[in-house]
Amino acid sequence: MAEQVIMGSYAAHKEFVASVLWLDYKNELLAWIESVRDELETETDPSRIRHLQGVVEACRNFLALPRQILEIMEAQGGKQ
């Protein structure tokens, strides 16, 4: 795996997480997750169920990115 290069500063990432921009993305992703969960309740096709579960996982992974980036920076001593 290639070495991770984080371009933004720790402060910039903290600011982004606290921003209304991130709140907009977060709210949209949470709405997608809820919509897919609703669809999963009635879906019977196994391949479609796996696909929808993958969509939920991808949304959750995206929601976790800002926190993960901050944790990486903290672990690398990049907190400034």
Order of helices and strands: HHH
The overall number of domains is 1
Terminal Cα span: 26 Å
Alpha carbon gyration radius: 16 Å
What would the average pLDDT be, to the nearest integer? 93
**In what range is the share of β-strand residues?**
under 5%
Q: Can you tell me the overall shape?
A: elongated
User: What proportion of the residues is helical, as a percent range?
Assistant: over 70%
Instruction: Indicate the low-confidence ranges by residue numbers.
Output: none
Structural class: mainly alpha
If you had to describe this structure to a student in words, what would you say it looks like?
The protein is 76% helix and 0% strand. It has 80 residues and is mainly alpha-helical. The chain has one domain (10-75). The longest helix is centred in the last third of the chain and has 30 residues, at 46-75.
Give me a quick take on this structure.
The chain is an all-alpha fold. It has three helices and no strands.
